[in-house]
């Protein structure tokens, strides 16, 4: 048996909404989810962020007797549903997301975990992986979940993902408002590589629909389900929309 196998609670598991891949369940004050595919990297990262006393990620507590990872359960509002309270989409919350990203980027910059890259990127930042709490002035982001895809990378990668996912860049967006919000995020993060931002959003969108498509073709159950729900078509449409409005979005960065 592994040294870090622990049994923490006899509570009944409760299925958590908002995920597609890991079958996350809540057991008492913990979450159990299938082990990260990147092996020890994510566990090392979560331990490092705990060592830094950064409260924006769950703590890794070990593995249960089914081999699932155990994380601390973070109470609050996870924005996984299509319709969200206005505060979640407010300028203040968007800017706070950008500042929260900046915090863990700065903590990982120059660390062994970042290797020869600028920082460690989360690589899946989105409202459904974000915990919001009312800190006295409405719901604000306080933590990110689902660090499975975390890896060494460039700051602009995560900032671009934030712009795509939290602004909702795609056919349902108004380009003037979207441009304003993309700029707001870049400003709140204080992004150095602004000229690369829109190009990187396009790169993510293109990579995402191709990735879901290829994994669904290979028979990965979660990706087959995602494709059946229209995710490939939706992301392709988002990519086309961003490409069509590229110049306007880029102008907003100047
Ligand atoms: N540590 C946690 N604290 C609170 N809720 C969590 C936690 N981990 C996961 N969840 C909930 O479970 C959902 C799915 O978990 P997630 O880690 O995002 O898996 P998936 O890879 O399947 O998206 C999240 O959207 C969130 O609602
Ligand atoms: Mg998730």
TrEMBL record:
Q: Which Gene3D superfamilies match?
A: 3.90.1200.10
Superkingdom, natural source: Bacteria
**Source organism:** Micromonospora sicca
Q: What is this protein called?
A: Phosphotransferase
Q: Which Pfam families match?
A: APH
Q: Where is the Aminoglycoside phosphotransferase domain?
A: 116-170
């Amino acid at each position: 048996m592994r040294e870090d196998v622990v049994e923490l609670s006899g509570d009944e598991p409760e299925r958590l909404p908002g995920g597609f891949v890991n079958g996350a369940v809540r057991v008492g004050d913990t979450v159990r989810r299938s082990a990260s595919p990147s092996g020890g990297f994510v566990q090392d990262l979560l331990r490092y962020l705990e060592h830094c006393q950064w409260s924006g990620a769950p703590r890794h507590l070990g593995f249960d007797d089914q081999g699932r990872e155990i994380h601390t359960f973070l109470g609050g509002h996870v924005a996984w549903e299509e319709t969200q309270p206005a505060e979640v989409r407010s300028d203040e919350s968007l800017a706070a997301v950008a500042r929260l990203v900046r915090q863990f980027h700065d903590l990982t910059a120059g660390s062994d975990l970042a290797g020869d890259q600028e920082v460690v990127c989360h690589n899946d930042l989105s409202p459904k992986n974000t915990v919001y709490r009312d800190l006295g002035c409405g719901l604000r982001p306080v933590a990110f979940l689902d660090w499975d895809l975390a890896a060494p990378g460039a700051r602009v990668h995560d900032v671009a993902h934030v712009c795509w996912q939290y602004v909702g860049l795609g056919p349902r967006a108004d380009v003037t408002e979207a441009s304003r919000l993309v700029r707001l995020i870049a400003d709140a993060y204080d992004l150095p590589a602004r000229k690369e931002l829109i190009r990187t959003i396009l790169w993510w969108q293109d990579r995402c629909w191709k990735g879901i498509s290829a994994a669904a073709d290979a028979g990965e159950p979660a990706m087959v389900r995602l494709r059946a729900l229209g995710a490939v078509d939706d992301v392709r449409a988002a990519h086309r929309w961003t490409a069509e409005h590229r110049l306007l979005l880029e102008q907003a960065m100047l």
